[in-house]
Write a structure and sequence with these properties.
The structure is a single chain. The chain is an alpha/beta fold and 453 residues long. Helices cover 28% and strands 26% of the residues. The strands form 5 sheets. It has a 9-stranded mixed β-sheet. Strands 17-18-16-15-19-22-23 form a 7-stranded mixed β-sheet. Helix 5 packs parallel to helix 6 and helix 9 packs across helix 10. It is globular, with a radius of gyration of 26 Å. Bound molecules: thymidine-5'-diphosphate (TYD) and magnesium ion. Thymidine-5'-diphosphate binds next to helix 3 and helix 4.
Length: 453
């Protein structure tokens, strides 16, 4: 076995060390040293010393004469929403990374996809480095996955898997998960940056040369800190994030990078006894268990291109000791602090001695600036013990001056609210629609509509 020497290079300033350290001594940044395979200095020097350019001239062609490689080579996954996220199915020859926390359901959804693709007449291989054939079979039985064209192999060798992709003649190969793989040439443990990026590279090369579609599973921790899958993000064609609550609630798959489609779409799933199922009418499901207490506001948001009604809950309690506590689940904490500051300054609501908790129901994560107004109204509602009318949805961005600003796609938000039986929307005054109760600033929104005890 050839031992490849490795060195540790600071990703911030480029200084290199022979040993790993938590802090780069050169630039002082923490946690920036990554392991890399070392090219010996003499090799580089001798190449440079020759002086002459050793490459050859590239054969460039006019872009008009190039055939697109895509046409008609997409595999449908059997989940229409997931296909939409991928830009119309899995492209042959593409490499995707499915990243998510352990236990989210990555292996489950991929087994379902494998089964659907195999039943569509394609040759599929599922490679697992973490589970035995018996365990995977158990899951397959549970999910009702059975097909002669669906093969399984258990392996943790990056070299073997790449070879199999190259020569196996498969249309789709799943690699579960990249953290368990290792390459014979590298001595570091599976899951380290050098193993993950080198195995990733091997697999990507094999996929491109054979035209096989590959989906690689990557575990990330809650904070997304584990460096492993992060280094892969630059190499693969598509990065899918699998997010949500591990225990019940909705799970979403969205593309954070997609070389063959847009990154705005999102697929919403729910874990059932027979695997993941697409949620066809998420708004209805999210509102099913609602009780209109104070602090509860329904917001009309947009997920990808889809409108969605979600409940935002706020709890405002007196602070017992020390600094007031502010916590948000499903919403950005910095944005919450900003909105609290705006509320205090512009509406004279006193919150400096209050603990504030925000919860977005159903495990959804809001990345929509239109959530501002709903968050502010939920906090005000909880603080004052007043309720908003049952039949009103809310959306709008809040500026630092307390003004309500317009947001994208108001028509789709309004249409969804109408469909689910709401009467009105508190929304930016720029929208001309009878359905809308127009508001110009935060203070008037609270004074006018927050009046039911
Ligand atoms: P899994 O796909 O193994 O998660 P990951 O590969 O992301 O680590 O499974 C996630 C959880 O889903 C597991 O704890 C059990 C549960 N589950 C169901 O509720 N129903 C099912 O049909 C299956 C297969 C799993
Ligand atoms: Mg798994």
């Amino acid at each position: 076995m050839v031992k490849v020497k490795s060195k540790y290079v600071c990703q911030n300033c480029g200084a290199s060390y022979s040993k790993w350290a938590g802090r780069c001594e050169n630039c002082g940044e923490w946690n920036t040293l990554l392991e890399q395979v070392a090219t010996t200095e003499t090799e580089v020097k001798s190449a440079l010393a020759k002086g002459a350019v050793s490459g050859k001239k590239l054969e460039a062609v006019s872009i008009n004469t190039i055939e697109p490689s895509d046409a008609g080579s997409r595999l449908p996954t059997g989940f229409p929403d997931l296909d939409m996220v991928l830009g119309g199915g899995i492209l042959l020859g593409s490499v995707s990374l499915l990243a998510g926390q352990p236990g989210m359901g990555k292996s489950t959804i991929l087994m379902q996809v494998c089964s659907n693709v195999a039943n569509g007449g394609h040759k599929v291989l599922y490679v697992s480095g973490e589970e035995s054939a018996g365990q995977v079979k158990l899951r397959a039985v549970r999910l009702g996955a059975s097909s002669d064209k669906l093969h399984f192999a258990s392996s943790a060798s990056g070299n073997d898997i790449a070879k199999t992709i190259e020569e196996g003649g498969y249309d789709l190969v799943i690699v579960d998960s990249i953290q368990t793989l290792s390459m014979a040439e590298i001595s570091s443990a599976p899951g380290t940056v050098s193993q993950v990026s080198n195995c990733g590279n091997l697999i990507i090369r094999a996929a491109k040369s054979s035209g096989t579609a590959v989906i690689i599973v990557g575990h990330v921790t809650k904070e997304g800190t584990l460096a492993g899958p992060k280094v892969l993000e630059h190499l693969v064609d598509v990065v899918l994030n699998f997010e949500g609550d591990r225990y019940g609630g909705f799970k979403t798959i969205r593309a954070v990078k997609n070389r063959f489609g847009s990154t705005t779409e999102v697929a919403i799933f729910e874990m059932a006894t027979k695997g993941l199922v697409e949620v066809k009418n998420p708004s209805e499901a999210l509102l099913a268990e609602r009780q209109n207490t104070d602090g509860s506001i329904i917001m009309a948001t947009i997920e990808g291109t889809r409108p969605l009604l979600v409940e935002i809950q706020a709890l405002v309690n007196p602070t017992n000791f020390g600094y007031p506590k502010r916590t948000a689940s499903g919403f950005d904490l910095n944005r919450l602090n900003l909105l609290i500051a705006v509320l205090e300054k512009r509406t004279k609501l006193s919150l400096q001695d209050k603990d504030i908790f925000i919860n977005v129901v159903g495990g959804m994560r809001l990345n929509d600036s239109a959530a501002d107004l709903a968050i502010c109204m939920a906090i005000a509602s909880a603080a004052a013990g007043r309720k908003l009318n049952d039949k009103i949805v809310v959306f709008g961005e809040v500026g630092l001056g307390g003004e309500i600003r317009s947001v994208i796609a108001p028509d789709r938000r309004i249409a969804e609210a109408k469909k689910l039986g709401f009467d009105h929307a508190i929304a930016p005054a720029t929208i001309k629609d009878k359905f809308v109760l127009p508001v110009k600033d935060l203070r008037s929104a609270l004074v006018k509509y927050m009046n039911n005890k």
